[in-house]
Amino acid sequence: MRVMMQKLILTLALTFLVSVSASAQQPATPAVVGDATSVDSVNNAVLQQLREDDILKALDALQMINNLHPIDDPFLARLSAASGGLHRALAQLGTDEQYELLHKWSMPTATGKDLRVLASLVPEVAPPMEFARAIGQRPKKNSFAIAAVGEMPGLSCSAWAMIVAADDAGNLRQLVTELEGLTAKKVNNADFVLTLAKIRDSRTSDAELITRLTARVAPEGEDTQVTALNDAVLVAAAMQRTALGPVCEQIAERLNQFDFSKGTSPHVSFLRRLRATVILKTRSPETNPTTVLYETPALWIAADDQKHNGFSTGSDQAIWLTHEEHIKRLSGPGDDLLLFKYPLTGTFELKGEATALDHGGAGMTYGGLGFDANPERFVVKDVQRSYFESRVWPFVAPKELRMFNRVNIRSNAEKISFLSNLHPGWNGTAASCSSSPWLGLRAFGDGRVYFRNLEIVGEPVIPREVRIADSNDLRGWMAAYGETVPKAVQQFMPGPAISGRAAAEAPGWHGVDGVIHDRMAAVPETDKVVQSHLVYMRPLLDGETVSYEFFHEDGRTTVHPALGRLVFLMETGGIRMHWLTDNENEWTGLGADNAVVEPLNRRGPRSLPLKNADWNLVTMKLTGGKVSLSLNGEEICDRSVEDISNRHIGFYHDRNTSAVQVRNVVLSGDWPEKLSAEQLQKLVAVD
Length: 687
What we know:
The protein contains 14 helices and 33 strands. It is an alpha+beta fold. The protein has three domains: 27-256, no CATH class; 297-464, Exo-inulinase, domain 1 (Jelly Rolls), CATH 2.60.120.560; 510-669, Jelly Rolls (Sandwich), CATH 2.60.120. The strands form six sheets. An eight-stranded antiparallel β-sheet has the order 5-8-17-10-11-12-13-21, with no helix packed on it. Strands 19, 22, 23, 25, 29, 30, 31 and 33 form an eight-stranded antiparallel β-sheet that branches. A seven-stranded antiparallel β-sheet has the order 6-7-18-9-14-15-16.
């Protein structure tokens, strides 16, 4: 079923190499354009009021929302934290109270004659409900409710929330009548909200809704960016009705005609996911879109970029589709990896072909480095980091020809080579790549990226374990919260080169003789927590174990293990859980100092077997969706891991209170001793 559904998306909706040029029509300049700084100011004001538990003042901060639609952010991604936080706060209220608040805020007044609508992209990753205790609330299933319109998480709309609350409270018919009156008076946004209400109202005929939505397929006059956002909301709501599927597909098709001549757009990824979801719901209503869209080929795993900045694109995870030996990156945050499931060393070669259409690029990765080539230059880049080097490169066909180009990675146990159309663009030593021996496909930008004819030849070796942090340049590791790591790319083969971005300062997280270090803040601010997070490029998979040693000295040096955004705070008195936040831009209401105790998940002695002024051994194992944590040979925690999309290995500390020393970081798993001939030749197999 999954294969059939992915084929459906690729063949019926996702235009292939003969598709229309990317310079198609995209929503024009909006009628009302706000200032980006104003959007940021509103976002900050709303979050401040929500932290003070004042929803009314948070809504007041959004009074001028109809004027906030900057050209470079038409889907208001910079309001994502505020919108997500407001939705979370409203979800804690009863249905009647939700409706009363939203109705009063939305409807025209003597001073504001428009119908207010707040719609934006929002974050899609939430902490476990137990963290509600950290903000003084009782844990509930909706403690950190993620905003959605219909079956589209990542999209928030105040009008839709008001309509759902009205329906649940028995006020929908009255609201529809009120909206019909406002529409007759041509009140701004009234017709849009009325259409949403009629979609929710079971008494509205499909024929009437088809007529209303058909007008959005090819709207007359200039199509503004504000209208594009509203149309996305309409599609997300309407796709729940099977009869409306075809017209929703047509609207989604129009919304997916992008003009990349002026650069990238934060909403492209969301609109591509919206389109794919509409196709799935229309052609196979019983299908769960999430199951189809986020399942990778059997031998691969998606590795998300681990940034903590609070700005969501509406698609926090990349979507990789497979069909007839092709792999396509449909959408994603922007620098997306699909990693081979097992580490590989020895003598082997990964062969393939890649092409990137529109505003994107395609390449491969190994050893914590990625490469890509275009008609102008060959680029080698630290994976999901800002450091790169490039050289002039005349060996790739122009993108306009829409041709596949050969991409290869060769290893002979001593040397690693990256090749573009069989021309070597970079050589490195196998030893320098040993801490991150993961083959991978890389897609970046907003364009459509395809890979085909993937094959591994030679005699690859699957090591029994990988020492993932022995390199001084921390290959394969990334630092969040604006911190730095060493630059892995140092120089190219002889030839004309173009220098990339260099580190602006000495890196904070760095390696020395196999030991990871991070400094304590030079001038600690003792009244606050300064989160610091180092994260590995590859998630921990079921059946795998990571172990390491860390030096602990009370008040000076320590570090805590992290899995995704979940941190296990190992303290002398016991273990507490911490959620990595986006600091001032956090939508959940959690502060950077959040920590909760989970008595049911604790194991072992009441006081942790933590050795002071000495090295301590930590072992973390993932089995059946549960993580077991041991300290110096004694199990101290066993808990389920809720966020299945984000299980990256990491280290965390508060830079105000400690420095870090970590060594002997080893990853192992129940990996096969070797790959079968069928696996080597059929890398794209789903099962």
